[in-house]
Amino acid sequence: LKKKYNLIIRPHPLSITYDNKLLHNLKKTHFFVDKNFNRHLGEIIKISDIVLCDYGGSVFNAIFLEKPTILLNMKKSSKYVSELIQNESLDIKIRKKLINLNINSDNSKIKKYVTKALNYNYKNKIKNLKNEFFEQNDKKKQKDINKFLLKTISRRQ
User: Burial level of 100, CB count in 10 A (0-12/13-18/19+)?
Assistant: First the structure.
C-alpha cells in the first residue's frame, strides 16, 4: 500500500503510554507516524481519502465525516472484544455493516478491500450509515448529537 498511498498512522495516546515499544516498532514500517497529540483527530480524518481504524470514537467520527472506513479487528478471544460483544456495543453492530480486516489478512486481501472501500457504492453505504446512526427526526436531538460529535472530533485524541 505504501507504493500507492500516503499512509498516516495515528496511535491512540494511551497505546503509547502502555506500550513503550510501539513508536519504535511503527518507525520500522516506514509509515508516517503522527505523534502530534495536540492535533485534532478530525483534522486528520477530514483530509483522509480512507480511514482504517479499530474500535471506539474514531469509527463513528469517520462515518460522521462520510469517509470510507475499514475496520481492523482484534481477536474475538481478547477480553476487550469479549466485553464489547457481551455488552452489545455499537462497535460490534457497526462491524456487521462495514468492511473488516483481521490481523492475519494478506496483502492481496488488504488491497482488494481498499479498492472496494474507495468505490462509489461503498461511499454511498457510508452516507447511509451516517443517516442511520446520526440523523434523527427530532431536530433538537439531532443538534445535540451533531454538537457532541463535532466536539469529540475536535478533541485531542
Answer: middle
